[in-house]
Amino acid sequence: MALLQIAEPGQSSLPHQHRLAVGIDLGTTNSLVASVLSGESVTLPDHDGNHLLPSVVRYLDTGDVVVGAVARSFASADAHNTIVSVKRLMGRGIKDVAAFGEILPYQFEEDQGGMPFIKTVAGSKSPVEVSADILKVLVQRAEETLQGELVGAVITVPAYFDDAQRQATKDAATLANIKVLRLLSEPTAAAVAYGLDQKEDGVILVYDLGGGTFDVSVLHLNKGVFEVLATGGDSALGGDDFDRLVAEWLAEQANVITAMTAGLSRQLMELARSAKEQLTTADQAWVNLDIAGKEVPVTISKAQFNSLIEALVDKTVRACKRVVRDAGLSLDEVQDIVMVGGSTRVPLVRECVEKLFKRPLHADIDPDRVVAIGAAIQADVLAGNKPDSEMLLLDVLPLSLGLETMGGLVEKVIHRNTSIPVARAQEFTTYQDGQTAMAVHILQGERELVEDCRSLARFVLQGIPPMVAGAAKIRVTFQVDADGLLNVEAKELSTGVESSIQVKPSYGLSDTQIADMLKASYSFADGDKEKRLLREQIVDADRLVAALEQAIVVDGQALLSDDERALFESEMALLKTVCDTSDARAIELGVERLAKVSDDFASRRMDLNIQRALQGHSIKEIEEIS
Ligand code: ADP
Ligand code: MG
């Protein structure tokens, strides 16, 4: 798993010869191919003039493979052999896809690598093969239209796609015999289509509501460099859900809920979709239900439709707010809002988003083509047709990185969702007098305690000059480079002693693990805070007791009466027992008490030390003079 991926800048090549390259939007519902023709990026239609290729593949027992609208029409009649929404399965393990079992009607089987295969009449098919079959159709369409062989393609993926999902997409391209010039994130592609990359800098929110998924991304553009600041959304929300609500409503109107059959429900979904699409441009939509051979006409108004979908649209608006907050921004800092996905044609969707940001949206480019159009522009650059432009896409750190501090606590040095490359330094100090070494323990995760985070590496900084506790200054620098490699360096500032280690934080974590770690950090947040507080109090208590014990050894003889010594000892013993009670407040009070009773001793020590220092000073001066 590496959300820490970066795409390399464009490699330039021969500038004069126009090299054929395409942008491909490999979507969950629909896929498209686009190319730059005479300076303009356009999507390429099939023989019948359709630009959108439904991302549906049907396997026949003859070995034939049917892709697109025809395959889609068999989605329910031949469900086992007709693969829809294969994008959801890309790069997933068999355990992940088991969860889709309820939504997707396939029979899965596992290969040795734990990869899921779908059983069809034409044999078992991996998600990579199914995606390759979609890509082949698009590539063929492009080569026929452009009349030549392609040098490669830019294929878009959701911004949140992890390493395995990206790799699976690349594998599909290899299988389809197409060179991947780059995988580009979908929101970046959309921003490029609107030419937003030409701006000096800016903050862009991309709202992508497709058939079955909702993605929202916040991008930061700085001097031609795009960074994905944060992503969010809902992988189970899209236009299909609008259809479902309308279908239910239609069924109620026609009084057929009790007589529901599979065929009728399919018919209702199709009519609902048609009604929904009509309502994008009209105030009323008419549909004719065919119930047991009898025609039942139903009318639905735009107002009715809006009230059906209102709650879902509201959910997307709330997700926008959350992602903007995750990016560390306020709503008015978002300068451009780009609308992507067929479902953003729904007027209510546009109204609500516009109302949230209080500014006009970028919605002029066909929302289901905009991603492919942007990808083609990028492909044109990468193919070497525009050698001097280059665009860099940066990603974000999926989980926070931090260090273990006293008491088994984690101090976060770089927070999750920080874009990479990044470097952050933090200063630490020694805990004990005369401490000459410090253990550096690097952790990944969102929780407060070491045992709840993932240990990445440990090393020891040796050779710290002996000083009193708290006097040494150790700067620990975390640096994550563009390839996602973490380098941690610890340096004692007064002597320059240093030590470092390189770790790869993303290695070995699946995205489910990452999701689990994030989920745990939210659900345990309150308990974690309490635990942290308790540990901090215990650390304080230990520190005070240790310091006092040390002081008694050094200056007790000279400065303490027997009574005082006995008082300190009983108070220290009391504090130690309180520490075992897990009562943070009681420990805090105990610390305050001990600090108070030993306060006078501390100031007497201070006086004594000043006297000693002055004495030492004068002796040295005398020596120098003589
Ligand atoms: P994906 O990104 O998931 O492949 P798309 O961006 O192609 O999906 O969006 C498909 C969705 O857009 C479908 O739910 C479809 O019904 C919806 N859609 C397409 N045209 C319209 C329209 N005119 N009005 C409302 N919804 C539409
Ligand atoms: Mg899409």
Structure, explained:
Residues about 1-15 and about 615-625 have low confidence and may be disordered. The longest helix has about 35 residues, at about 525-560. The chain has four domains: about 20-240 and about 310-395, 2-Layer Sandwich (Nucleotidyltransferase, domain 5); about 240-305, ATPase, substrate binding domain, subdomain 4 (Actin, Chain A, domain 4); about 400-510, Sandwich (Substrate Binding Domain Of DNAk, Chain A, domain 1), CATH 2.60.34.10; about 525-615, Substrate Binding Domain Of Dnak, Chain:A, Domain 2. A hairpin with a 2-residue loop joins strand 14 and strand 15 (about 225-235). Strands 1, 2, 3, 4, 11 and 12 form a six-stranded mixed beta sheet that branches. Strands 18-13-14-15-19 form a five-stranded mixed beta sheet. The chain is built from 15 helices and 27 strands. The protein is α+β, with helices and mostly antiparallel strands and about 625 residues long. About 40% of the residues are buried. Helix content is about 40%, strand content about 25%. The termini are far apart. It holds the Pfam family HSP70. Chaperone involved in the maturation of iron-sulfur cluster-containing proteins. Has a low intrinsic ATPase activity which is markedly stimulated by HscB. Keywords: ATP-binding, Chaperone, Nucleotide-binding. This is Chaperone protein HscA homolog. Belongs to the heat shock protein 70 family.
In which range does the helix fraction lie?
25-40%
- The residue ranges in which pLDDT falls below 50 over 5 or more consecutive positions are 1-16, 616-626
Assess the beta-strand content as a share of residues: 25-35%
Q: Write the CATH fold name of the largest domain.
A: Nucleotidyltransferase, domain 5
- Rough outline: elongated
**Domains (count):** 4
GO molecular function: ATP binding; ATP hydrolysis activity; ATP-dependent protein folding chaperone; unfolded protein binding
Pfam family, one: HSP70
Function: Chaperone involved in the maturation of iron-sulfur cluster-containing proteins. Has a low intrinsic ATPase activity which is markedly stimulated by HscB.
InterPro entries: ATPase_NBD, Heat_shock_70_CS, HscA_NBD, HSP70_C_sf, HSP70_peptide-bd_sf, Hsp_70_fam, ISC_FeS_clus_asmbl_HscA
